[in-house]
Amino acid sequence: MLIVGALMKANVKIVTDEVKPALNTVTVSSYKLGDLADNLSVVFIVIGVFIFIVAGLGLFGACCQNRCMLVTYAILVLILFIAKIAAIALWFTMQGEVEDKVKNEMLTSLQTHFTDDSVDTGSEVSRSWNYMFMTLDCCAINKVTSGTNDFDQSPWCTATGKSCKDSSAEVPRTCCVGVVASTYTAATAPCTTGVSGYNTMGCYDALKAEIDSYSTPVIGVGITILVIELLAVIFAFVICKQTGEEVV
Question: Which pairs of Cys residues are joined through disulfide bonds in the record (predicted)?
Fold first, then answer.
């Protein structure tokens, strides 16, 4: 858990100061998505440290044949085991609902706050969306397949004086393939007119793919820990019994 948390903290590229304002317009069970993603790695690290400490308690209890330490250890591990089972069941039960809610709120945020295809002008959230397009190599929320896309209802396309409404722009310059904060201003047609050369993947799918890349190691580590915890509880009581003392 410590290693997984450390790797997520070091490598997850979606949680940057520039991208967080856009993610924080989306809430998951009253938690802002940007803060949740940023703190998830810390949660894994804290859980890893706690498990390490509890394991130390069990080690000393077993070595010293200390019934009190072993029973305390077994109870703590059992609580962890039940909590993980409950968390896994809750996630699989609510996964579809949470994903739909996140996608809808991302779309609402884009169509409410995206005012300019620039990282220098517009609101903080609008600038943040532009950074997200460049960071995740994505565009809009749903996959962009034509000039008719998620931006059509945004202030960028409905307000007078914006490049989408007053010119032939169909996608922001920040959606063009390979652009970064220092080069996006040079992007022109056919990218901005929605013909070619723009990232077609929607940001919801890009965000989900980024998170899913860590799901396999997290699931693998989680299952391994569950098996070890179950065995640990059994062996803790076995050792208690071998000491010749009654386990209450």
Answer: 139-157
CA 170 → CA 7, 153, 157, distances in Å?
Answer: 38, 12, 8
Distance CA 237, CA 60 (A): 14
Instruction: Indicate the helix (H) or strand (E) that contains 28.
Output: strand 27-28
Give which of 146, 148, 112 is closest to 129, Cα–Cα.
112
Distance (Å, whole) CA 92 – CA 221: 17
- Going by C-beta distance under 8 Å and a sequence separation of 6 or more, which residues neighbour residue 44? 1, 2, 4, 5, 8, 218
pLDDT digits (tens, 9 = 90+) for 109-129: 999 999 988 898 888 999 999
- 179 Cβ contact partners less than 8 Å away, ≥ 6 residues apart: 134, 173, 186, 187
| pLDDT of residue 163 exceeding 70 | no
Cα–Cα distance for residue pair 137/53, rounded to 1 Å: 41
Which tens digit of pLDDT belongs to each residue from 65-100?
788 888 888 888 888 888 888 877 877 777 777 788
